[in-house]
Design goal:
62 residues, two-stranded antiparallel ribbon, two-stranded antiparallel sheet
């Protein structure tokens, strides 16, 4: 069914176009600006670590 596929990733392409074929090296290729995938789980972990670093004295009182 979904073997080997992660389901918590988002894809937000901002601009897409095809390069003209007469351009050397990149001609005829499809271009996507901002094509990275945003992983929701990694973002939540990162926000939690940053929050712990900021508020560590309130969370871990001695």
């Amino acid at each position: 069914m979904m073997t080997g596929r992660v389901v918590d990733m988002f894809y937000f392409p901002l601009v897409e176009w095809d390069w003209p074929g007469w351009l050397p090296w990149i001609g005829g290729n499809h271009f996507i600006f901002f094509s990275p995938i945003f992983n929701l789980a990694d973002a939540c972990i990162s926000c939690g670590v940053v929050a712990l670093l900021i508020f560590h004295r309130k969370v871990f009182q001695s």
